[in-house]
Design a protein that fits this description.
This protein is α/β, with parallel strands linked by helices. The chain is built from 21 helices and 21 strands. The strands form five sheets. Strands 10, 11, 12, 16, 18, 19, 20 and 21 form an eight-stranded mixed sheet that branches. Strands 1-2-3-4-5-7-9 form a seven-stranded mixed sheet, with helices on both faces. Strands 6-8 form a two-stranded parallel ribbon. Helix 4 packs parallel to helix 6 (about 160-170), helix 13 runs parallel beside helix 15 (about 395-410) and helix 17 runs antiparallel to helix 18.
């Protein structure tokens, strides 16, 4: 328990969370500013909206935009690549969920860094996995040439985008609409070419395998951009593009018109508000990540009131399994309880997976898989229990059952990391390597194989024990190594560090948890079935 009185403890927790959220919001605000006011003004003078203005105009009025990958590589390239020259996310267009990829020409003319490929592939994978339409708002100068060796080749290089284009069009029948709203050069031109619908904007669009300078250098022919690959040429001469728009606004309206022509309409389910207000989420977690808290308090502030039923509450209580509703949709929750508990007459440490809890979760997951109920994992796991007792109980086999049940489930899987995500427990709780449909975290999340103190024990315990036995002080050099290890682990465990490397789709404000999980769930519900890789083997 917190050592402070309950009111003081809540204030401390609230203040801690608010500081983290404020730090996150300042970082996100800087990244969303793209290339800055001067570059934005240059875009406007060219008669073009910015990427974010285009997205805002495209979405249904008053509906949210769930941005994906905003923090990816934010701490690289000396801060010169905010957003990596692209904006990706999910929103509603004519009442239908859609993935949007928009080139941000305010950042190095929308050129691509290596992680831009990663970001765009992730957006395409979301569209493929969930069978929702995808819109490309193309405005890019192409590959950032100094980094071409990490962009052009490889299984997950630039070409993978066109592979996904082809699968969506020929195999998965995922609608793809490409709006060329700026330059689209070289191999990048295949992205709209492999889409179902291509719209170009008169006067600002260009699409071609090579620009005028390359054409002159390669074949000695002098030609202007409009004649070579402009909107009017491609809509009236080559026939490559399908629609001509006079400006950005008309182009976006053409996209909406295409959505209105798609079969099937979005259905909004009735829902109940949570039993407790969301504002209590800021004080739900202790500022010290090692202290316990009430996981039900978090659940009752996110999920619908009513229809909440915990599965086997008295058996292996360190793992909470419950059926509930999220904005009216039936869901199955798998969460970790923290603190010291007792079960079957034995003490339990919350956040640890035991033999019984692994088998409990495996059964719960398999049952909900048969019933077609989506799974939501609330992660705060430190790992599996170790020792002779649990080994003799067969914890390895039980853990394998838990992992296998989760890995083979075809229902939507969404994870939210609240606090710890460590060791093999992270994998068993639908870690990113097992392809959950979406992966989010709070600013308090700590993703890593172990905590810094544990790493110090693993790396230096033998030396420290020898010094202690000999009654000798810790040498300065060794102490510096220990301090550096702890510092490194604190940095590596930070939620923003994980997001910067694509280990989560987004770090979210706790107050937005219900809205974010609802949107992710509703997107995932578009397709219930095996993952793309399984289907196409």
């Amino acid at each position: 328990m917190d050592t402070l009185s309950e009111p003081a403890s809540k204030l401390a927790r609230d203040a801690h969370m608010r500081r983290l959220v404020e730090q996150l919001q300042r970082l996100e605000e800087r990244l969303r500013a793209g290339g800055g006011p001067a570059k934005i003004e240059r875009q406007h003078k060219a008669g073009k909206m910015t990427a974010r203005e285009r997205i805002a105009a495209l979405l249904d009025p008053g509906t949210p935009f769930l941005e994906i990958g905003l923090l990816l590589a934010y701490d690289q390239y000396e801060g010169e690549a905010p957003g990596l020259g692209t904006v990706t996310g999910i929103g509603l267009i004519e009442g239908r969920h859609a993935v949007i990829i928009a080139g941000d020409a305010t950042v190095k003319a929308g050129s691509w860094w290596p992680e831009t490929v990663t970001k765009n592939l992730r957006a395409q994978e979301i569209a493929m996995r969930n069978r929702v339409p995808i819109v490309y708002l193309v405005d890019s100068a192409g590959v950032n040439l100094p980094y071409q060796d990490r962009i052009f080749p490889g299984q997950y290089g630039f070409g993978r985008i066109f592979y996904y284009n082809s699968l969506m069009r020929r195999k998965l029948r995922v609608p793809q609409i490409a709006a060329v709203m700026g330059p689209c050069i070289a191999g990048g031109a295949y992205l709209p070419a492999l889409s179902d619908t291509i719209i170009m904007v008169e006067g600002t669009s260009f699409m071609g395998l090579g620009g005028p300078n390359l054409v002159k250098g390669a074949i000695g022919h002098t030609v202007d951009a409009e004649s070579l690959g402009g909107a009017r040429m491609h809509t009236s001469v080559s026939g490559v593009a399908h629609y001509l728009a006079k400006d950005d606004a008309e182009c976006l309206e053409r996209i909406r018109q295409n959505f209105r022509a798609l079969p099937g309409a979005a259905d909004v389910s009735a829902c109940q508000p949570p039993a407790r207000p969301a504002d209590g989420l800021y004080s739900a977690l202790p500022a010290d990540h090692r202290l316990p808290y009430d996981i039900e308090d978090i659940i009752f502030r996110i999920f619908d009131a009513g229809d909440y039923a915990e599965f086997q509450p008295e058996y292996a209580p360190e793992m909470l399994c419950a059926n509930a509703r999220l904005s009216g949709h039936p869901v199955a929750i798998i969460a970790n309880r923290r603190g010291f508990l007792r079960a079957q007459g034995r003490p339990r440490i919350g956040g640890i997976v035991y033999t019984e809890s692994a088998r409990k979760v495996a059964y719960f997951v398999e049952t909900n898989e048969r019933l077609g109920v989506p799974l939501i994992y609330l992660q705060d796991v430190s790992g599996f229990m170790v020792g002779p007792e649990v080994e003799s109980e067969g914890i390895i086999r039980a853990g394998a059952e838990m992992v296998e049940a989760m890995a083979c489930a075809t229902v939507p899987k969404i994870i939210l990391t609240l606090n710890h995500a460590s060791g093999a427990g992270y994998y068993a709780m639908a870690g990113q390597g097992f392809d959950p449909h979406f992966s989010f975290s709070w600013p308090t999340a700590r993703l890593g194989v172990m905590e810094g103190d544990s790493a110090v024990q693993a790396l230096f315990s033998v030396e420290l024990e020898k010094l202690k036995t000999g009654g000798k002080p810790v040498p300065q050099q060794l102490q510096e190594q220990i301090d550096k290890t702890k510092t490194d682990y604190e940095r590596w465990l930070d939620a923003r560090y994980a997001a910067a490397r694509g280990h989560v789709d987004a770090v979210i404000d706790p107050l937005e948890t219900r809205a974010v999980l609802t949107m992710a769930l509703e997107v995932a519900l578009h397709h219930r079935g095996q993952h793309l890789v399984v289907e196409t083997l």
